[in-house]
Amino acid sequence: MSKSKFTTIGRKILMALSGFFLMFFLLQHLTINMLSVVSPDMFNDVSQFMGTNPVVQFALQPVLIFAVFFHFIMGIVLELQNRRARSIKYAYSKPGTNSSWISRNMIITGLVVLAFLGLHFYDFWVHEMTVKYGGGDMSGLINPNDLDSGYRYHEELVAKFVDPVRVIIYVISFVLLSLHLMHGFQSSFQSMGVSKGKNFIKKFGNVFAIAVPALFVFIAIYHHLQH
Amino acid sequence: MSTLDSKVPEGPLKDKWTTYKDKIDLVNPANKRKIDIIVIGTGLAGGSASATLAEQGYNVKAFCYQDSPRRAHSIAAQGGINAAKNYQGDGDSNYRLFYDTVKGGDYRSREANVYRLAEVSGNIIDQCVAQGVPFARDYGGLLDNRSFGGVLVSRTFYAKGQTGQQLLLGAYSAMNRQIARGKIEMYNRHEMLDIVKVDGKARGIIARNLITGELERHSAHAVVIASGGYGNLYFLSTNAMGSNVTAAWKTHKKGAFFANPCFTQIHPTCIPRSGDYQSKLTLMSESLRNDGRIWVPAKLEDVMAIREGKKKPTDLSEDERDYYLERRYPAFGNLVPRDVASRAAKERCDAGYGVNKTGEAVYLDFKSAIERYGKEQAKIHNEKDASAQRIYDLGKDIVEAKYGNLFQMYEKIVDEDPYKTPMMIYPATHYTMGGLWVDYNLMTTVEGCYAIGEANFSDHGANRLGASALMQGLADGYFVLPYTIGDYLSDDIRTGRIPTDTDAFEEAENSVKTTLDKLINTGGTKAVDYFHKKLGNIIWNKVGMSRNEAGLKEAIAEIQELRADFWKNVRVPGGTHEVNRELEKAGRVADFLELGELFAQDALTREESCGGHFREESVEIDGPQKGEAKRDDENFTFVSAWEYKGNPSESQLHKEELKYENIELKQRSYK
Amino acid sequence: MNLTLKIWRQEDAKSPGKMVTYPISNIEGHMSFLEMMDILNDELIEKGEEPVAFDHDCREGICGMCSMYINGEAHGPDRRVTTCQLHMRMFKDGETIHIEPFRANSFPVLKDLMVDRGAFDRIQQAGGYISVNTSGNTQDANSLPIPKADADLAMDAATCIGCGACVATCKNSSAMLFVSAKVSQYALLPQGRVEAKDRVLNMVNQMDIEGFGNCTNTGACEVECPKGISLDNIARMNRELIKAKA
User: Residue B516 in contact with residue B587, Cβ under 8 Å?
Assistant: First the structure.
């Protein structure tokens, strides 16, 4: 049946590895975003660095994009395989008695996060790409012709959170990301074969899954209210 | 009729097996590839035999009625497996294991076979450890032992309360290795319904595919019956629902003598029955008697109060309790052999001291063990002022580690917590020492047909000691049969494949088909279980833990009547060419209805008490053993081997005289 | 008590099946679930109908033959028991009980509630053994001390009865708990280390060929496993696979 060169376990391990990478990215993204609250200047500086450094742009960025696509394509492949493994469903089933909704519905939380990523890309990444590589403006300035106009990043960030609808979408997406992480974090360790310190991983994973999305949400609301 | 030749080799007991193995004919490896062997059953005996024969190079076809060889009922054995390793340094030896087994079997087993069993017992443990069987170990990493009933040394190896499971999975893994290599062809969900003889030799079987209902012909140069015991004759037993006598019985009807059918083991520690709908009884491992104390109330009024729910067993003080095994058998106490413990429980319950509603239950109490272990642990942990609760908790942990799964099983079934209130137990049919008669080579009286494990009669005499069934099954399968069968098969290297399109196969298949059609078309109204339950009742009441002439004669008449009724009034729905569970059951019960009669007949013939066979007419009248079973060595030191003559009532008795050259026959005393 | 049973009936492997309703009365709490099924079957036979086919054998929770999906859970609502050890006291008078076979494409239904778990046997045949001949010419059992902790963990893994509840319960029909229990048992013992690499690769490969789904670590198998086989075994198998591939 499965002709792929990966075993089922191999695929899960890759899923876990890409998950780890994305979680690490999330942490890094959060750190930079937090700067927008603490110090707009620092935020602008770091943004300009990240946006123009060739290593980040041409090495890390493609890896990140690959990881996102890999994680989501593999997720869908796994889901389809899993559905195929039982073609006649139970007439009556009570999965809630033995497992959590979150763990059973990673595909749902994952797809919502994916949809959000679409919006997010459209909002920031597409814009960045158009300005930088479409328009050839690598300066990062509000007015590329005026060196004193300052960096545009913080201003653009704040502008995005004016619209309350966007903030609400943002909040919902991060709640689902939180659910996704809540299972994904510990699950990645289990897939990698880590069983020592299982309880600690679980607890730490829950803290991570709540704190990281909560801070993103905080940033969004903060800028919305500050406006 | 010819006298039975047990083919026991000459020479001193200790050298018999070694010398015999050295002189036995062998089949060279290239020729083994030309030889097929059929093995019926995949329990410890059949599974280990299949694996070993396949390893040696024979082509093995293994059959089981379950959906996988791993499900054979050996899997349910709990307590352990004996081996004379003397790891505990308590004076154990091959001789002592041999002696204990012969004595435990009440001097009705064949010396040479038993000694061989003891001799290879140590090998079994080595073998199983090499296979990855996770036996219990002590903190030094070495194998742990526990003691079992009827012996004075600790020689029982165990894997929690699931020793049978682990040993069977070991044999199953060895089988898997050979299945993967193509040396074993595995036929799951197949039931052997007849054996085929060509020129007087066993050359094949007729098997029914339990999924399609198809009858299949399978040929081989030898057939090995490893189909287990016939305890389900009693309807209620600790055997699996599907355990049956059919393979052995069909072989018996084709000429294999059936030995000592009446030797049945009633196991003392089972969960008592609770109602008529009950389908089976659950065993609580004998190992529980290591730590549990068996008692009933000393006064009848307390019994009544407990039955009515006015008193709880924990309300009774020590002197209101009758620890009857400790009272009657101070030397062995709660660790007397199974037959003795069972009869003692029956004696108390018959006298009205049974503690549950049916009056058929005694207590098995762990209170003292918990306390003893608790104190020991408190000492180890240096807790000088441990409270009673603390001692209880510490002790409970130890008991839980030892028997946790058994306690859990008890609680699930009975809905009472055995840590808080004593368990209730009662004897139940567990094992059958009788079976197909075999010689020293384990061959039956049908040439080329072997019987191993519980299916044969040879090693346990009139009573089996705990933890010896696993030992015998594996000894036969791993270490005995693979040698002895070569001696016979060495003549078959030029025979070539046995064709199945011959008259012998045709005839056998037709007779099976006729029987199946007859069962389907009886047109009766009663379910198979109706007859099985009735049979079980007759056997339990009249050929159970104690037997007498009048009862046995009644039983024979009642069974004959019931058998006639069965063939007139049984209803088997469905057809033959489909999954048909009722048809499977009907075939098995039909055979039990025949065996039942022979069973009672054998019990009637043996006018002595020995081991599990207790004739009320044969007891000690006075002296220190008053009331105990009385063996009659002068007239009954023989194996009864019955030859089928067209009808169970006409079976002819042959006697194999038992000669004891190395052991002096004594009265078994556990006092 | 009186109950309504909704039972999956299917003539044979090729026919389609459906849920059929049967009322049953006078059931007592201390009956086992299978004894209740026996009573139903007796009634069906009496009425001239075909009894419900289901697998069962030892009826003491060790052979692993019984396999029913009862009220939405493998082996029913009780924990740490097989179907045969489930007792009717777990149900209430008037309750409706749904009874289905263990479902997975790798466990095709043979009839009614009977399924074919041959896939499990084939996985074991792919490597679930230690390649040692059964001649008895091995070293003395005590010449190889094994730390008690390892022996105990191996024993815990080895208690798997191969019933398939893990597959039946898993939303993905994954057989990871079953396979990992066997891989773990041998991986924990020095005797088993010799072939550890080949074993895990071959067994996982066979598991994939049989068409079981992927493990998504929901943990349902561990909860429903009648023998309490731990998820740690799955982690251990993942480790073993990484080691074998590395």
Answer: yes
Mean pLDDT of chain A: 92
Whether the CB of B413 is below 8 Å from some CB of chain C: the reply is yes
CATH architecture of C3-111: Roll (3.10)
Report the number of distinct structural domains present in chain A: 1
Residue A2 pLDDT grade (very low, low, confident, very high; cuts 50, 70, 90): very low
Cβ count within 10 A of residue C25: 10
**CATH code, domain carrying A210:** 1.20.1300.10
Is A98 contained in some domain? no
Domain ranges across chain C: 3-111, 117-134+142-245
Residues with Cβ < 8 Å from B112, sequence gap 6 or more?
Answer: B6, B8, B9, B13, B16, B17, B440
Residue with tokens 């072989």: B251
Nearest residue in C to A86, CA atom = C104
Q: If DSSP codes are grouped into helix, strand and coil, which group holds residue B478?
A: helix
Is the pLDDT confidence value at C3 over 90? yes
Return the H-helix or E-strand segment holding A12: helix A8-38
Domains parsed from chain B with CATH numbers: 269-428 (no CATH), 504-636 (1.20.58.100)
Q: How many whole angstroms separate alpha carbon A64 and alpha carbon A70? A: 10
Confidence bin at A5 (pLDDT 50/70/90): low
Confidence check on the interface: ipTM exceeds 0.90, yes or no: yes
* Residue B423, strand partner residues: B364
Which of 110-129 (B) contact C at CB < 8 A? 120, 123-129
**Per-residue pLDDT tens digits for A103-159:** 999 999 999 999 999 988 888 888 888 988 888 888 888 888 888 888 999 999 999
Distance of residue C88 Cα from the nearest chain B Cα, in angstroms? 10
Q: What is the pLDDT of residues B443-471, one digit of tens each?
A: 999 999 999 999 999 899 999 999 999 99
Q: Report the CATH number of the C117-134+142-245 domain.
A: 1.10.1060.10
Size of interface A-C (CB pairs under 8 A): 142
pLDDT for the residue numbered A150: 87
Kindly report the length of chain C.
246
Alpha helices in B422-548 (DSSP H): 469-474, 481-489, 503-520, 528-542
Residue for token digits 């930088």?
A132
Least reliable range by pLDDT among A132-136, B258-262, B306-310, C74-78: A132-136
* Token pair 């060279």 in the structure block, residue: B28
Q: Residues B291-314, buried b or exposed e (16+ Cβ, 10 A)?
A: bbbbbbbbeeebbebbbeeebebe
CA distance C65 to C71: 19
Is A92 within the bounds of a domain?
A: no
d(CA C245, nearest CA chain B) in Å? 23
Q: How far is CA A178 from the centre of its chain?
A: 10
Judge whether A178 lies within some domain. Answer: yes
Mean pLDDT of B499-508: 97
The answer to whether B160 touches B178, Cβ cutoff 8 Å, is: no
Instruction: Choose among B159, B527, B581: nearest Cβ to C155.
Output: B159
C-beta neighbour count of C173 within 10 angstroms: 27
Residue B226 tokens read as: 């490893």
Structure confidence by residue, pLDDT tens digits, B306-365: 999 999 999 999 999 999 999 999 999 999 989 999 999 999 999 999 999 889 999 999
By C-alpha distance, which of B218, B374, B348 is closest to B294?
B348
Share of chain A above pLDDT 70, in %: 98
d(CA B433, CA B228): 10
- Tell me how crowded residue B569 is: count the other CB atoms within 10 A of its CB: 14
C117:B68 CB<8 A? yes
HEC profile for B181-240? CCCEEEECCEEEEEEEEECCEEEEEEEEECCCCCEEEEECCEEEECCCCCHHHHCCCCCC
